[in-house]
Write a structure and sequence with these properties.
Elements: E1 17-25, E2 32-40, H1 44-51
Length: about 50
């Protein structure tokens, strides 16, 4: 007989993650490049403010 799989709920601190996509324009060619990374939600404002 097959065993039934039961999902368990994780208990504890979880970190909310956000995908951050940054656009950079090349001074040489004028083309746009995109950089995407996954960062914690708490540091997004700091990252965006430092690049602006």
């Amino acid at each position: 007989m097959a065993k039934k799989v039961v999902a368990t709920l994780s208990k504890g601190d979880t970190v909310k993650l956000t995908k951050l996509i940054q656009v950079k324009k090349s001074a040489k060619t004028g083309a746009y490049t995109f950089r995407s990374r996954i960062v914690p939600s708490e540091v997004i404002k700091e990252i965006v403010a430092s690049k602006a």
